[in-house]
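Exercise 7.
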Amino acid sequence: MPLVLAADVGTTATKAGVVDVHGRVLAHAEEPNPVRSPEPGAAEHDPEQLWRTLCRLSRRVARGREDRIKAVVLTGYQLGLLPLDARQRPLGGVITLLDMRSMETFRGLEAACDAKALYRRTGCPPFAPYPLAKVWWLRHRRPALFRRARWLVGGKDWLLLRMTGRLATEASLSSATWMLNIRTGDWDPMALRLAGVAKTRMPEVIPPFAAMGGLRPQAAEALGLAPGTLVAPGIYDAAALLVGLGGLEPGVAAVNFGTTAMMRIVTRRPVLDREMRLQAYSFDGTRWLGGSGVNNAGNGRAWLRGRLGLGSDAELDALAAKVPPGSEGVKFLPYFTGERDPRIGNVAASILGLREGHGPGHLARAQLEGVAYTIRMIRDALRENGVTIREIRLGGAGAKSPLWVRIIADVLNVPVTVPAVAHPSLVGCAAIGYAATGLCRTVDEAARRLSRSGRRVRPDPRSASVYARGITEHMALVSRLYGG
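Solution. The predicted structure, written as tokens, is:
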């Protein structure tokens, strides 16, 4: 039976697995990706370390299956930037989505651009972590490095270059640069002029599902695979998770809960919003990914767990479960690192409504509810723009919390399914691999074969009624505190 090796290069860890055509993960391994901070605000990955980690994991999971692995597919995080020299060597670290240095020059970029025109062209609202803002920062704060950079790529692009010798980026990753035209599928002239970058300094944009070549002999040896093994570029992490969760069905949205969170739904047109509340990323050239990201999800949970001296999220949930929906008036606006929604912006977190009778459980539940309300804001913006969501497929670390799953179902008032798929982002990658090899006719067909139904949670009418009032109160607080 042919197999696919899938790898997810994330901000905190790289995961690799071998997946069969039934969606079973036959072998899995992961290692952390250390984030280095050479100066205040910096958050970088060492590209060579990413490559070495990928190679170690690949050899580990492929052992004994090398001759059956027919394709390798990568997924990874968006918003990374890696300058390369003329010989395609890194000029530093991968500037990750967690890097805050672009905030230093972001106001100048906002003043220089027509944000609404750029949004209509790229599907990206103004957001400091986008690679365009990072390029602007390089140009103004690191001009020597900016001039030396012959190429400007992402972290996953670099790994694909090591694997195939081809310098390219796939459409879903490049859509989140603020520089790709979502209608032409190529680099946008307005954005490039703003960045001060010629198109020749950008990688070729290729479809995410088609094979981009075979493994070079040296790379194959390092990865423990056969030379010439097919390489498909894959899609970015939240989109891979969507595919792995079976989220290609009409009306089904995928929500990924990790340190951050994401809501995405596949649409037949780019869904743009007059208030720029939504992002529209390319999916496969004929479909797009509508929705938005949430900067703050599991990070607020980790912060609260640490402040309360608890050892696990399960302990936090046990406290939260003792508190009724609505947290008896406690409101937690969990915006520790600001938000992408222009109604919130670059703000700080807030806790309101505390009284003497409240305790740790109220804070724990209010934090979960605050994240759910933020996801609800995305759902409502999609609905206002003609996109109906009838079901949510939930993945990520947050999906392991029955309480959080329940809160999401009640706040959004739609059924939530947690599919019985181990490592859905890897399964989503594998679906792309099986389509690229021709073993499945399309990615949609492969996703149907590989994904499996799981636990389904329907909204509770009484709790949904409480949260219908709660979202109104949440929005009023956002408007009052943050001017949204």
